[in-house]
Design brief:
Bound molecules: ligand PTJ
Shape: globular
Distance between the termini: 41 Å
Structural class: alpha/beta
Length: 246
Amino acid sequence: MSLIPKSHPRAKSLYIRERLVEGFDSGLVAKEGLMAHGRGETFDYLLGEKTSKHAQKAIHAAAFALASADYPVISVNGNVAALCPREIVKLAKVTGAKIEVNLFYTNQIRKKNIVKALRKAGAKEILGINSKSAKRISGLDSARRVVDSNGIYKADVVLVPLEDGDRTIALKKMGKKVITFDLNPLSRTAKTADITIVDNVVRAINKLILECKKSKIQKIPYNNKKNLAGTVLEIKKNLSRRMPHA
Ligand code: PTJ
């Protein structure tokens, strides 16, 4: 039972934190994942814990990219498996994307737990677990370099939520379109991806599912760098508005 009273002014944020801790206790999340969440929380706070108009624009662009992809793949790590497994499965269903488990802090037991959680959430096919179809991508030293030949390796569009910068660069070099959820608009991933949704994955993934469900998604002009710059300005405005005045 949660110790957080519903009336707590920061209840929503604390509930998300709780989900991560539960995910850690059940062997889904890496220790470092808890810290990564803390960094994300800080940016979420600065963003006002809401979906900005820039994030909404990125969500629209991401929906269009996924809808027009030939072979989209969603990469899942420990944090994502703990925070939104059902939504990942829903998004995969709506877009026809494959789901692949790919970890930075790779660990076979954690991988098995993540697969179990995804299956419980309704996933039928999960890639990234069969060593026979493992392929290495070049220009990457981390464990993330091992991908599935029927998944990320073959994909034209890859969704990499809560990512580290190196793989985004490597995937771009392979000619793939990269979409990410990253609360830090200044991260290397955010700046390298084609479409960066600067929002909490917990909030934004449902909006992306809704957008993908639309029968016709209009192509809109979209420039990721411009969108990120707009997000930083939004944070700046937010800070000025909330600054304590003596
Ligand atoms: O499960 P693993 O082994 O694959 O490891 C996953 C983590 C997240 C630990 C790993 O990918 C990592 O270390 O990531 P980074 O380099 O810390 O980057 C994570 C990014 O996600 C940071 O820029 C955070 O600000 C951002 N972030 C954290 N929580 C959220 C988030 N973005 C959106 N929604 C969140 N809830």
